[in-house]
Amino acid sequence: MAEYAKDYSLPELMAASVAREINDGELCFIGVGMPLMAATIAKFTHAPNFNMMVEYGAVGPSPRRLPMCVDCAVNNERAYYTGSQREVMGAQQNGYVDAGCISGAQIDKYGNLNSTGIGEYPNLRVRLAGSGGANDIASSASRTIIMMRQDGRNFVNKLDYITSPGHLDGPGAREKAGLVGGGPHVVVTTMGVYRFDNETREMYLEKIHPGVKLEDIKRSIQWDLAVSPNLIETEPPTVEQVMVMRTLDPLKVYLGNGREVLAGDFEAFMKMFEDSYWPMTELMKSKGM
Amino acid sequence: MAEYAKDYSLPELMAASVAREINDGELCFIGVGMPLMAATIAKFTHAPNFNMMVEYGAVGPSPRRLPMCVDCAVNNERAYYTGSQREVMGAQQNGYVDAGCISGAQIDKYGNLNSTGIGEYPNLRVRLAGSGGANDIASSASRTIIMMRQDGRNFVNKLDYITSPGHLDGPGAREKAGLVGGGPHVVVTTMGVYRFDNETREMYLEKIHPGVKLEDIKRSIQWDLAVSPNLIETEPPTVEQVMVMRTLDPLKVYLGNGREVLAGDFEAFMKMFEDSYWPMTELMKSKGM
Amino acid sequence: MKFEPIPIRKGKAKPPAYKIMTAKEAITQFIHDGCYLGMSVSAAPAALIWEIVRQRDRIKNLSLSITSQIGMSSALIGSDLVNKVEMAYNWGGIEGEDKVFRRAVEKGIPRPLEVEDYSNYGCAMRWEAASMGLDFMPVKSQLGSDIIKYNPRIKVIDDPYTGKPVALVPASSPDVGIMHCARADEIGNVQCYGLYGNTDLLARASKKVIVSVEEIVTTAEIRRMPNLTVIPYYYVDAVVHAPFGAHWRESNYYYHHDLAYGLDAYRQFATKEGFDAWADKYIHGTKDWDEYCKLVGYDRLNRLRLSESKYQKFGEVR
Amino acid sequence: MKFEPIPIRKGKAKPPAYKIMTAKEAITQFIHDGCYLGMSVSAAPAALIWEIVRQRDRIKNLSLSITSQIGMSSALIGSDLVNKVEMAYNWGGIEGEDKVFRRAVEKGIPRPLEVEDYSNYGCAMRWEAASMGLDFMPVKSQLGSDIIKYNPRIKVIDDPYTGKPVALVPASSPDVGIMHCARADEIGNVQCYGLYGNTDLLARASKKVIVSVEEIVTTAEIRRMPNLTVIPYYYVDAVVHAPFGAHWRESNYYYHHDLAYGLDAYRQFATKEGFDAWADKYIHGTKDWDEYCKLVGYDRLNRLRLSESKYQKFGEVR
């Protein structure tokens, strides 16, 4: 049995939880940001034969450095295929992808996501990134794994803009719209883990993170949240998962305030990259990757 | 001035005439059969910076062996690009191709071609090859260069089947059909060279091969052929053109009965390939290719 | 709400697992009677086709999805295995007239053959559509021709953006796609050298994929130049090691088209009896591809290889 | 009949001729005011973008066609050069929030910016359509979302074959496409190492194409491995030699993303004054890319290169 870490942060718990949603041998389409980190953890721990696809054209990399973006050089590292976006996105639309991993700024109970903006489109009060590949993953991956901050304002009754389709307005809606993918399967947040009911397609709380109160979760969600009668506590990260995270991201770029630390500090950045080579290479070998 | 060959055959005259239709620096899409031979002659004589595209995915080869097919290994030789059919055919549909070189079994006065069969489709008396890439070239190349045997029966009033669109039924018809390419520009046959009138889009005789009688040409064509008032005799092949042809095809596979000679004669085939390497390589160097 | 999560639905990706099989095993496992079979032309999967012919007692009815084929599909047609071919071209190229094809279409010998005609790009765009999970592709070829007049599956619509006519071709998704390539690793990452036609599309369009290769290499070798990977593992069901596996056709940078053999075969194909004698000798008379190669002669195959490498080698300029 | 032959109509192919220029020459020659500009993201054509910004007195109004951009398009937006962007994503990735983009869309600073939203695949399929001379492409993304609700250029039709809904996106054919790649020869055959996103499509979709590269190589070097040629010469108008030409972003197998720089730049982009100061120093304060590299420091750039080659080198497995 895997040994659990005693000392871990909330972002580390979240990343580990997302990593666990990825099964060995699967092919998953990984979106920009934290999903890249979570996928790399999965690859170097329980799922060495899981392969990631990144949207600018790489399949099966084993990144031994912090993966920074979906077009990052890191995504070529030991990859099986590198080339065009057309290949990976075409494969996804063709139904080849087991799961896709994305995040968003707002979510509703059907797992629809907004990453376009806050306010009335196109006169947005806050303009956000836009879809990127999130809509494509949400449209066509066989299931989607969603990562979200849960900040008290972003689990809403009605999105300002549906960027990435979840289960739209309920059972049968995706099929009617012509979407080929299966839609949202799980949502991992800073407070808990949610799944979608097979019958109603509505989100329900399945796991609650250690130390989080159910009433705080309910208060942070605009709709009347369904809670599993078998509600359990989220499994902590393993020692190995935490080791991978801290090797790849010692300055907590993804998992803390590392961006502030690194801004302008080239030496620290180089050191982070130089230091991760040996431990990650050794780990890779031990996994037979 | 180029020195003309004194001794040449009719197929050699034809191949040389087609080669002359290709201008240096052009990008031409070359169909299966004699067009491959003619294009190679052009490349090694007057048009070293002409580049051929072949439909199974090669651009810019310099074949120093007899090119045998559009998916032939020879087409990779010193190519700039090798890969997918999608690239070359996509480029063609996108208007990048200056000229395409094709042939057919039947032709009408608008340069429409039949390479599908003789008889009433689908109950054909004689089933032929089918379009292959000919229809695509005829549809989308900026102009087409057509090579034809002229056997007394195949310049017809009405094709049994329009495989490859010429000027269809006259001015404006291609545009109306949605075709992006310019259509037939020239027809080189065993008897003469024909062009298409800019106004009527109808074929007219421009050049007559040495030794061929105009009345024989007219008799071999079902419609009332228009003949240029400036009818001239076809220019003979140059010494250099003939040298290239005979080096690549000493057994007259394209230019005579070489197929009968080679059938089953592996040693003769190997010798043909082995012998062409040095003279063609030397010629290549002398052209700065 | 029953609090039952949506069951996990798997994607179509084939696993990153060991996939090496013999041709016999692969054909036995994946090709069934009534199969809608896709075949590449560059390079020609001769070793796989021969094996299908050897299993003709089991595989009696095939429909073919091809773009162009030169002689290889005729091995199936002449062996009385094919009811229909969706195609742009089925002929001999430099080898000339395809009498096997003519007999089938014109005279129903050995059985009637239905032909569905497209242009080459039209056929390729059918695989292209399927390769992206689309049900059709627009194409500007074929317009104005009788290909469209006689093929009701090609639709001409007014382009919703420009109002101009554009043809649509329906996706073609073969039950099984067979193809021959340069090299693959054990989990099915396939790399090609030189032109590969629409092999890339066929692999993506087909439900099951069998790839024969000149060389099996390590995964590390694949990783050296991942840009050469034309078919990633997730499309591939079986990898068959078949050196010289495209003979009598060519395999770029490995060996050249054996024209002397092809011309001789075509001469024999001129009659049904000739075809049968050829198939009896070269296909049924050999139990597998290695025996076929021995019959043709490895000395001859090596000559073709040496001739090719005189002119070109991948990674060098000669 | 006047016996006047149909005049020769040339294809769009660019000639196989010498195409090396400086960034200044290429931008001056091909990019005009009002240009509809396509930009690749992998790798980012930073050297070319900086040069456009340097020529802002001449090039005042641009519309952008991108799929995703990370910071680089913001160099143009923040410099008051862009009226509209057709896009899927314009943000910082790991660098975070793009304040330049936000200021333009939310507050019209330095000028109002119209945004036309698509998904990434939706954008890519617009270039794909143009790359094949088509006027639209079908795509199954975007269905059911507000992307379609608010973008009238995306049409949803009933698929003529299945009756199911499918989205159509209109072709995007930029006046000029700019991109950064690994290497090219003098006539413009361009090869890429590793992932290249939709650079291939952009080159095919654009009327004029400027490619900056890490290395200029001989044509013989291109011919060694013609399968690596992602953009053949006929698409290319200008080749600009710009080593480290994607900095602060990465160039696969050459050097890595300079995150420390990117994060610092984003911190400065938080205010208009900060952006202007950054642009004054790094773009207007340098006369060309070499001066920019000197300002950043070739020692630093070499560290990025060495760090990358510790992990990977094309042709090897590390």
Helix/strand-derived class of chain A?
alpha/beta
Instruction: List unreliable stretches of 5+ residues of chain C.
Output: none
Low-confidence stretches of chain A: none
- CATH homology superfamily name of the largest domain in chain C: Glutaconate Coenzyme A-transferase
| Separation of the first and last Cα atoms of chain C | 70 Å
The CATH class of the largest domain in chain C, by name, is Alpha Beta
Structural class of chain C: alpha/beta
How much strand content do the residues of chain C show? 15-25%
Q: Please tell me the CATH architecture of the largest domain in chain C by its name.
A: 3-Layer(aba) Sandwich
Q: Quaternary status of these chains?
A: heterotetramer
CATH topology name of chain A, in short, is Glutaconate Coenzyme A-transferase
The string of secondary-structure elements of chain C, in order, is: EHEHEEHEEHEHEHEEEEHEHEEHHHH
CATH superfamily of chain A: Glutaconate Coenzyme A-transferase
Number of helices of chain A: 9
**Sheet with most strands: strand arrangement of chain A:** 4-3-2-1-5-10-11-12-13-14
Proportion of β residues of chain A?
15-25%
CATH topology of the largest domain in chain C: Glutaconate Coenzyme A-transferase
Radius of gyration of chain A: 18 Å
- Relative helix content of chain C: 25-40%
Can you tell me about this structure?
The complex is a heterotetramer, with two copies of chain A (289 residues) and two copies of chain C (318 residues). Chain A contains nine helices and 14 strands. Chain A has helices at residues 10-20, 34-44, 85-93, 134-140, 173-177, 214-219, 239-248, 258-262, 266-286, and strands at 27-30, 51-54, 58-59, 81-82, 99-103, 106-107, 113-114, 117-120, 123-127, 144-148, 184-189, 192-196, 203-208, 226-233. Chain A is globular. In chain C, strands 1, 2, 3, 5, 7, 11, 12, 13, 14 and 15 form a ten-stranded mixed beta sheet that branches. Chain C is of the alpha/beta class. Chain C has two domains: 23-118 and 173-261 and 284-311, Glutaconate Coenzyme A-transferase; 121-170, Defensin A-like (2-Layer Sandwich), CATH 3.30.30. In chain C, helix 2 packs parallel to helix 3. Chain C has helices spanning 23-30, 46-54, 72-78, 99-107, 120-131, 146-150, 199-205, 219-224, 259-268, 272-284, 289-296, 298-311, and strands at residues 20-21, 36-39, 62-65, 68-69, 82-87, 89-90, 114-117, 136-139, 155-158, 165-170, 176-184, 190-191, 208-216, 229-231, 238-241. Chain C has twelve helices and 15 strands. Helices cover 34% and strands 20% of the residues of chain C. Chains B and C meet through helix 3, strand 9, helix 4, helix 5 and helix 9 of B and strand 6, helix 4, strand 7, helix 5 and helix 6 of C.
